[in-house]
Amino acid sequence: MTTAPTLPRWSLAVPPFALLVLLISYGRDLGPVLIALVCVGLGVAVTAAVHHAEVVAHRVGEPFGTLILAIAVTVIEVALIVTLMVSGGEKAASLARDTVFAAIMITTNGIVGLALLVGSLRHRVQEFRAHASGGALAVITAMVTLSLVLPTFTLSTAGPTYSGSQLAFAGVASLVLYGVFVFVQTVRHRDYFLPKTSLTEDDHAEAPTSRTAISSLVLLLACLVAVVGLAKTVSPTLEAAVESAGAPVSFVGVVIALLVLLPETVAAVRASLRNRLQVSLNLALGSALASIGLTIPAIAIASIWLTGPLTLGLGPKELVLLVLTVLVSMLTLVTGRATLLQGTVHLTLFSAFLFLAVTP
After folding, report:
1. Potential cystine with 280: which of 103, 115, 155, 260 (Cβ 3.0-4.6 Å)?
2. Total number of domains constituting the chain
3. Could you tell me if residue 45 is inside a domain?
4. More confident site: 4 or 225
5. Of the candidates 194, 55, 36, the residue with the CA atom closest to the CA atom of residue 128
6. Residue 292 maps to which CATH number?
7. Can you give the residue range of the structural domain that contains 117?
8. Where are the bilayer-spanning segments (predicted)?
9. Which H helix or E strand runs over 126?
C-alpha cells in the first residue's frame, strides 16, 4: 500500500520566511543587506508558489490548476493596483492602463515566446489545441479593445479617458466575457484545454490528498502575497535605479509586472519542457484574460471614490505593438503546431516592448 505524497519541508518553511522578510522590509529604506534579503525572499517565494500550484493542479486536474494560479496572482495584483491608485493621486492616473498593457505584452509575447522557445529546443515541434487557444485570443482581443483602445477615440470626455457610463459598460463587458470564458474552459468544453500529448510521469504519480491540496492552496496564496508585497517593497529602489539610468519612471511598472508574473512564467516553462504546451498557453493567455477581466471591473468600482482623471487609452506606439501582437498571435495559434520560429518572433516582439519602454 502506497502512501499519498506529502509536502517537502522546504515548501512549508518558505512562505513564513517570505512573509517575515516582507514584514521586516515593508515601508523601510532598503540598504544593501535588506535588498539582498528581499531578493532572496522573492526568489524562494516564486519557487514555492510554482511548487504549490503544481500540487493543487495535480489534485484538481487541468485546466483548474492553471486557472487557480492565474486568478490568485491577478486578484492580489488588482488589490495592489487599487491601493496604489487610492494613495497615488494624479501620478497614478495611468497606473491601471500601464499595468494591464504590460501584463498583456508579458503574457502573450514574453511567457508564450519563452515557452515556445524552450519547448521547441527540447521537442522540436509541439502541438496544442488551436480552437482553445484561438478562442482565448479572441476574448483577449475583444476585452483589450473595449478597455484600452476605444478610450483613445471616444468623444464624451477629453483625452484618452472614459465617461462614467462608458467605464461601467467596459467593466461589465470585461467581467461577462471573462466569466463566459471560465465557464467554457472549466465546464462546457473543458476537454478543449487539456494537453494533446500523452501523460507524463508526473501525471501517473499518485495524487495528493485533499488535505495536502488545501494546505498547498493556502501556502500558494501566502507565497503570492509575499511575491507581490516584496515586488512593491523593492519598487522605490528600482525607481531610483531607473531614474539614475535615464529611463522613464513608467518602466518601474513593467519591472514590477515582470516580478509579479514570475510564478506563471516558471510554471509555463516547466510545462513546456514536459511537452505540455497547452498548459503553458492556458497559463499565459489565462493570465492575460484575468488581468483585463478583473482589473477593469475593479477600477470601474473604485472610480466611484477615486478623484482625478483615469487614463485608459493607449498611445500610438502601444497601439502598434498591440495590433502586431494580435496579428502574430493569430498566425501562431491557427495551426496548432509550434516551432522555434514562432517562439523567436514572440520574444522579438517582447524585446521591442521592453526596449521601447526604456527608450520611448
Report:
1. 115
2. 1
3. no
4. 225
5. 194
6. 1.20.1420.30
7. 92-197+248-358
8. 7-27, 33-52, 64-88, 100-121, 133-155, 167-187, 213-231, 251-269, 281-307, 319-336
9. strand 126-127
Question: Is residue 141 packed enough to be buried (19+ CB in 10 Å), middle (13-18) or exposed (0-12)?
Answer: middle
Q: What is the DSSP string of 159-203?
A: SS---HHHHHHHHHHHHHHHHHHHHIIIIITGGGGS-SSPP-HHH
What local confidence, expressed as pLDDT, does residue 84 receive? 67
Q: Among 108-112, 210-214, 314-318, 345-349, where is mean pLDDT lowest? A: 210-214
Q: Is the pLDDT confidence value at 229 over 60?
A: yes
Q: What is the pLDDT of residues 57-97, one digit of tens each?
A: 778 776 777 777 777 777 777 777 776 666 555 656 777 88
Assign residue 248 a region: left if phi > 0, alpha if psi is -120 to 50, beta otherwise? beta
In a domain, 40, yes or no: no
Quickly tell me which residue has 509536502 as its cell.
Answer: 7
Does residue 149 fall inside a structural domain? yes
Does any domain span residue 23? no
* Cis peptide leading into residue 16 (ω within 30°): no
Report if pTM > 0.85.
Answer: no
